[in-house]
Specification:
Arc Repressor Mutant, subunit A, RNA polymerase sigma factor, mainly alpha, 2 domains, transcription regulation, 9 helices, disordered C terminus, Rna Polymerase Sigma Factor, Chain: A, single chain
């Protein structure tokens, strides 16, 4: 099945319109400029060579973001940078005193989140996507994404302050 010209144009426009966001998304996984650029280039190649798999042209953005997420995760797996860390190891790294660099704390805490939670946080809050879009990109059900988002925020709250989470009114 040959992709039609209109679908190719939609993909090209999507890549052009979202290039900064896509780069930022890849960078959020690999934390390295060159690797992030490689992932974006790889993702563009994958999208262009598999465009006939895009069933709904109107979903081109989430389809392309999904390619970027999976390409980033594949890259990390190949680099063996993905590590399963148990609670005890995480505890041993957490400092006993409060840090005076809250932004660095957030960055480190995000880095320590399991990928399924980090992806949801990055797509929802850093890329400002709707929950439905996040679900589409990660190929998950909306309720699963809502649950993961809630759990990720709980983990971040507990990790960021050593005090119990308070109800926001």
């Amino acid at each position: 099945m040959m992709p039609n010209r209109k679908t190719e144009q939609l993909l090209t426009r999507c890549i052009t319109d979202h290039k900064e966001n896509v780069y930022r998304l890849a960078y959020s996984y690999v934390k390295n400029k060159e690797d992030a650029l490689d992932i974006v280039q790889d993702s563009i190649y994958k999208a262009l060579t598999s465009i006939e798999l895009l069933n709904k042209p109107e979903a081109v953005k989430s389809w392309f973001y999904r390619i970027v997420v999976y390409t980033s995760l594949d890259f990390l797996r190949k680099q063996k940078k993905v590590q399963i860390v148990d609670e005890e190891t995480i505890e041993s790294y957490s400092p006993g005193t409060a840090d005076i660099y809250p932004d660095i704390d957030l960055e480190q805490t995000l880095d320590n989140l399991p990928h399924k939670y980090r992806s949801v946080i990055v797509l929802r809050y850093f890329e400002d996507l709707k929950i439905e879009e996040v679900a589409d990109i990660l190929n998950e059900n909306v309720n699963t994404i809502k649950t993961r988002l809630y759990q990720a925020l709980q983990i971040l709250r507990v990790t960021m302050n050593d005090e119990p989470a308070k109800e926001v009114k």
